[in-house]
Design goal:
The protein contains 12 helices and 7 strands. 38% of the residues are buried. The chain has a 5-stranded parallel β-sheet with strand order 2-1-3-6-7, with helices on both faces. Strands 4-5 form a two-stranded antiparallel ribbon. The radius of gyration is 26 Å and the shape is elongated. The chain has 2 domains: 202 residues, 3-Layer(aba) Sandwich (Rossmann fold); 71 residues, Cytochrome-c3 hydrogenase, C-terminal domain (Cytochrome-c3 Hydrogenase, Chain A, domain 2). The chain is α/β, with parallel strands linked by helices and 348 residues long.
Length: 348
């Protein structure tokens, strides 16, 4: 997806991060484990070429109360300077809140009344240089937006609309995950910061506004267990190291790189460590992936077909393995050389 970017190099950027949507703060906690780069490296200026970055996140801030909220109010009054607006948590529908409100962040200085997250989004999103939805709840609604919820929750794209463009000329940047894979978010943020500094092109996004290089492949394509699927060799329970499709894994159809990237410093990734993929990075999560731990639609047919094909493949591979799993016959300690050596270029 392409959009017109306003190429004005920025040397200082604030990050206004609200997790006051319907959120467990899990994405914030997850990002503290990032290493490529780490959040600390970005904030301390250890990544060459980035603007100076100021982070305003309630979980990681030392300020509290009005002191913490000051930056948000300054941004609302156009007094803060360029900022990236990070939204964590799904967005409730405040039009159906009855006599109260679903969620808020801080109070209005003039009235003392709570300011809802929806109001903050209305005020700050159009002024932000970039708007980032971190985690599946913010990107697509996630757990809080599942069928039967009373809040009318939705993702940021549902709330602002697909035609929304930030002050930097970009659509919403969605980095899904429940929670987000830490390096996926930090890599996306780093791209945006380089773009803000004038050192990177427009961030490439797919039609669901996800970074293409992170979500262009499926879980299955990077899975440590994918070879077992090809051989039609499936796990029957969760203690097996084989392919987990028959016990509920959605990996073959889910856009996510966690099996390739790992979770922390290259280690982990749900199916790699024995957990089935439940589709948590997908726009249809969780409704379209339930009930969890049941075979996904079509998996029985695909597993059956793979089983027939895999039986042949396993047989052929076993023949090759047996032949290659011993030394060649010309390696011996006898008086006659049988390696086929022919000294045609030397003395006979």
């Amino acid at each position: 997806m392409k959009a017109a970017s306003k190429q004005v190099a920025l040397d200082e950027v604030h990050i206004l991060w609200t997790s006051e949507g319907m959120s467990c703060d899990g994405d914030t906690v997850s990002v503290t484990a990032a290493t490529l780069p780490s959040l600390e490296d970005v904030l301390l200026g250890y990544v060459p070429g980035l603007p100076k970055v100021h982070l305003h996140n309630k979980v990681l801030a030392k300020e509290v109360g009005d002191e913490f909220m000051a930056a948000f109010h300054q941004a609302d009054r156009d007094e803060l300077g360029p900022f990236i607006f990070v939204v964590e948590g799904s967005i409730p529908n405040e039009r159906i809140n009855g006599d109260g409100y679903w969620t808020s962040m801080g109070n209005d200085p003039a009235t003392g009344e709570p300011i809802t997250v929806n109001q903050w989004i209305d005020r700050l999103a159009p002024k932000a240089w970039a708007v980032v939805a971190i985690g599946t709840c913010a990107a697509y609604g996630g757990i809080h937006a599942m069928a039967g919820n009373p809040t009318g929750c939705m993702g940021l794209t549902d709330y602002l609309g697909r035609d929304f463009r930030s002050a930097g000329g970009m659509p919403i940047v969605n980095v899904p995950g429940c929670p987000v894979q830490p390096d996926n978010f930090m890599e996306t943020l780093t791209w945006l910061l380089y773009q803000a500094a004038g050192s990177a092109p427009m961030i490439p996004l797919d039609d669901m506004f996800r970074p293409t290089w992170l979500f262009g492949k499926t879980v299955h394509e990077g899975c440590d267990r994918a070879g077992y699927y090809e051989q039609g060799d499936f796990a029957q329970d969760y203690n097996s190291p084989k392919c987990l499709v028959r016990v509920g894994c959605w990996g073959p159809v889910v856009n996510c790189n966690v099996t390739k990237r790992g979770w922390m410093d290259g280690v982990g990734g749900c199916p790699n460590v024995g957990g089935i993929c439940i589709g948590c990075t997908m726009p249809g999560f969780p409704d379209k992936f339930m009930p969890f731990m049941d075979q996904p639609p079509g998996s029985a047919l695909s597993a059956t077909l793979a089983g027939g094909y895999g039986t042949l493949i396993r047989g052929l591979r076993s023949i090759t393995n047996r032949a290659a799993n011993k030394e060649p016959k010309w390696r011996h300690n006898r008086r006659k050389l049988t390696s086929g050596y022919d000294p045609r270029w030397g003395n006979r």
